[in-house]
Structure formats: structure tokens, C-alpha cells
Amino acid sequence: MKKNLIYFALVALLFACDNAFEDRAFEKQSVVYHVIKAPLIDTSNSTPPSPPLLYYGQHNFIVYPNGKTYYHNKFNNYGWCGTGIDTSNPDFVSLQPSDLMELTDDNLVQFVKSVVQDTSSYHRKIAATISSPVDSITNKHFNEIINVFSQKNFNIYSVRKTTEEEQVVLSHKIENKEYDPDQINWKGEFGGIKFLPPNSKE
């Protein structure tokens, strides 16, 4: 009888250790989000054409692999009119390292709650972007930002890769290097206004 009790005790202890190990392994797993490089477009006539990719909004969050998030509000407001605007490439928004605000676990959620607005009204055309320098987002701040958007009924936002300008400026900020946009050998092209509409008064 004593041997049986010892046997059952050992089996119970073994299962307890296995479950504890599984729990710890599960806790270490993290959700990975993937940035879609090219949006899927429905070419049928059943839906309207997709809007152009939103590169910048009034609120821009860069979720970085180092576990931090950076925010800026650099945005060229064209009055929501696409006349003469090249939307195939991101604008040059004259971003500076000082424009990037660092957000951490301690202040991220409260900051997002303080800046986003309810966009359920048609007339409130406030937009945001969440970007990442890599395709796979492992920074938990991504999910926290999305949750706040949902709670605040903030619906106009896009998830994208960081623009070249954002990436260059952010690297200068992180490495504490002096930044001069005129000294950067930009690899890509910039969008924005390509021609001015004719002045009807002239």
C-alpha cells in the first residue's frame, strides 16, 4: 500500500512539472503580425476600387523591434483632394529626429488614448498609420494600439512598412547622429504635389 502511494505521488508530481513547463512555454510565445506588402485588390465590378495606400496620417506610430514605439504627427494636408497629388510614393514630410516621440510600456496606452478621436462620424477625417521597419511585427505595442483604436471607435488607419524617410530619421535619432536631409542619398522617390492645378482667377 505504501509503495502504491509513493507511485501515485511520483506520477502526480511528474504531470505537475510537465504542465508547469507547458505553461511557461506558452507564456513565452508571442503573437506575430505580418505587414502585407501589396494590398489585395478585388478586380470585379461588385466593389468600388480600393483607395490609395495611406502613407501618413495625423497620427503615425512606428513599432520598432527594440520593444519601443515612436510617434510623430508630420502630415501634409491637401484638404483630402487628390488633384495633382502623386500617391504612388510617400510624401517628403521634413521629419526631424526631434519630431519622434519615444513611447514605452509605461506611457503608450495612455498617450494613444489622449490623441486619437472617434472617427465614426463621416466629417471627422482623422487618420493614423502604424508602421514597422520589418515585415513581421513582434512588438506587443502593435496590439495595444489596435485595442485602443477599437475602444475609441477610431476606424481610419492603415498598417504599412516604415517609409524611407522615417527609417533614416529614426536611425539617426536612435544612434544620436546629426541629421541633414540634404546630405542623405535617398534611394526611393517621393510623392506629394507633382503639379499645381491652374488658378481659375488668372
From TrEMBL:
Residues 1-20 form the signal peptide. PROSITE patterns: PROKAR_LIPOPROTEIN. Keywords: Signal. This is Lipoprotein. The lineage of its organism: Bacteria, Pseudomonadati, Bacteroidota, Cytophagia, Cytophagales.
